[in-house]
């Protein structure tokens, strides 16, 4: 979202919230103004009601009502309001005044009450009071009612209300202006940040400087930096793969081309056969190198395959790979066997990559073990930690000198001399897979030969993905 759009949204949100607050406050202001006006004018009604009630008394012959002029003089002269009054005994005809004035819901003697009502189509504010006569001839009290139209009251209420609302509306407008100004100041660093990102070159994945952005926006900037770091790592992995592939395949392809040209120059099938056999061997090496490059690319954590994990019986995977590689072992007369329990040994991992791990270890062992040698694959729980599965590939080949055991995990590293051939990628692939699964790998002497040990965390409580077979060794 652009900063301009953010400002507009904040302005609309603030305007909406403040409008609602103003409407609520206006309702309360009107109620307060009406209450204040009623309180002031009800004092006049109260004085008039009490003044008339004091001049109402009973004689032996009847009830005397002497309305004093001062009782009606309390109302403002020249007012547009009209006065209505009624004096009489409740339930009987009025002694004087207007009939059918609205009666109060509740009333007590000598205490005026005030209420609203309608009379002859006009809104009235009325005051009423009961006046006991204290004579046996007139046991019932007299009710005094005075009503006034509300024109003057409404004018006062309107004046108070409008003045109060105008003052608060002005305050809200000022508050809105201040809030918008503060918003503009607050989002300016975000606007600058967005502009800086838009102006960046396409290949610029350096971290964004978060020093000048608001504290609340720093988590977003950090997330963007983390995302760009991941993209940078992915691009670097792609670049490294392309570079490695181009570098490593250049020589085999040149050799293949030379061998093919040599074979084409031969005049007879007998003369071209050795060249074709050499071409076949070179083509196999090139295919293996390509497959290993692809395996290495898949094994890199940046490609996300490590995240797609499931329950895998590592013992069943190792046993299946031993069976699959038995023909390769038979061609060299190597005794290839498997040792492990029949119970599943479950780890959480990617089954394809775990098969690649064991395939590379066994293939390396078969490749460097001499004719009629022995290679064993053993799977069990690590004796020093029952929470780890242990995979060991043991051979009686030439082994690897101790000083070179760390270097052989580097890409394209080959030991000089001896029978050490290959692309130098097998153990690099294995280490990438092991580290991606949170495990460890190391090399030890087998006296004679080499032991490659891999430990992987067990996936506790997970069902095995690959069912376990019996653990008989295959030869």
How would you describe this structure to a colleague?
- The protein has helices at about 5-55, 70-75, 150-200, 220-265, 270-300, 315-325, 325-330, 350-370, 425-435; strands at about 55-60, 65, 85-90, 95, 115-120, 120-130, 140-150, 310-315, 335-340, 345-350, 375-380, 390-395, 440-445, 450-455.
- With about 475 residues, the chain is an alpha+beta fold.
- The chain has three domains: about 5-160, Beta-Lactamase (2-Layer Sandwich); about 215-300, Helix Hairpins, CATH 1.10.287; about 310-455, Heat Shock Protein 90 (2-Layer Sandwich).
- The strands form four sheets. It has a five-stranded antiparallel sheet. A five-stranded mixed sheet has the order 9-11-12-14-13. Strands 1-2 form a two-stranded antiparallel ribbon.
- Helix 4 runs antiparallel to helix 5 (about 270-300) and helix 6 (about 315-325) crosses helix 8 (about 350-370).
- Residues about 460-475 have low confidence and may be disordered.
